[in-house]
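= Protein in question =
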Amino acid sequence: MIKYSLKCDNDHIFEAWFPSGGDYDAQKERGLLACPFCESKNIEKAPMAPSIAKTPPKVSANIPVTSGNIVPPEMRKIYEDMRETIEKNFDYVGDTFAREARDINDGIAPERPIYGETTPQEARELIEEGINIAPIPPLANPKKDTSIN
């Protein structure tokens, strides 16, 4: 795995992991890369020292937000708004997420935004196949606790 710093034509800088250096070129050529901020597809490598990992980065729903794993109120609001938007505008596909994402990517299923559950291994495989996915931070019930699970 290799991590590149990338930059779009609107000067947004972000990082992305690829299975190898050639995979960046292949995904760019296929038009699979897009800026997460403005969705521009005009992406270039930004100046950086690439990070190379011997094993793929772990995909996890356990995202520490602050020390003590407490979600500040302003972050909770952002999470709630994001989840509300996703739940309102995306199709929930449950634990068939990986299969449905592949079917959409392959043109078998109609193109639409989806969300659901998948294993870390399936998520890695989707990323390695060039299918764009992103984890949704889980949000605990605010009446029960204020931590991310």
